[in-house]
Amino acid sequence: MKQFAVLGIGRFGFSLATKLYDLGYDVLAIDRDEERIKAIADLVTYAVQADSTDIATLKSIGLKNIDCAIVSIASDINASLMSVLNIQELGIPELYAKAQNEQHAKVLHKVGVETVFLPERDMGKRVAHYMVSNKILDLIELDPEHSIIEINALDKWSGKALQDLNLRVKYGINVIAIKRGEELNISPMAMDKLDAGDVLVVVGDNRSLNKIKTDDDKK
């Protein structure tokens, strides 16, 4: 399972780290502030009070074994850049960063961060996309443990009936709708077969949904 590290536990970092953990991932939270670490300690896998600008410290806590790091330090641009450079030196495969403004984002791109988050700008774009989207839904949280999401039918499911796939047993999910092009089947039957390109609306616990999304990434 992919392991994440969130460096900088402000509002954005706190929300990101706890959500990733809720989705079933291992999450390491890092911040210099003791109170922030205390606040998140029971909501992630590990929480460490540390200075992410000190590469020796990052090595000592085993950060090089992480699959993906998110530098969520925006108020201190120097600390943000030093943390990014340290992550790069450690050779962590995936790196993302939060920026305070467009100039900060430009600098992060210059030093090699491909994906930079500007939360206010990105939220505006997401809301605009949602308002004009013809998707059924992106995500509905039923409670902290269960959600309804859209997933793409895996290639290996093509031509097979729902009853043969046995998704409830294998993945712990229930299919509540199938979208095929402009057609929407809101009462799928056990004998209904799936085609390549179908979009399924499924309900399940977050860990089960994470498992099926992982299979989707591997297809």
Describe this structure in words.
- The chain contains nine helices and eleven strands.
- By secondary structure, it is α/β, with parallel strands linked by helices.
- It folds into two domains: 118 residues, Rossmann fold (3-Layer(aba) Sandwich), CATH 3.40.50.720; 80 residues, Regulator of K+ conductance, C-terminal domain (Alpha-Beta Plaits, 2-Layer Sandwich), CATH 3.30.70.1450.
- The strands form two sheets. A six-stranded parallel beta sheet has the order 3-2-1-4-5-6, with helices on both faces. Strands 7-8-11-9-10 form a five-stranded antiparallel beta sheet.
SSE layout:
Blueprint: E1 3-7, H1 11-22, E2 26-31, H2 34-40, E3 46-49, H3 55-60, E4 68-71, H4 77-90, E5 94-98, H5 102-110, E6 115-117, H6 119-132, E7 139-143, E8 146-152, H7 162-165, H8 167-171, E9 173-180, E10 183-185, E11 199-205, H9 206-218
Parallel strand pairs: 1-2, 1-4, 2-3, 4-5, 5-6
Antiparallel strand pairs: 7-8, 8-11, 9-10, 9-11
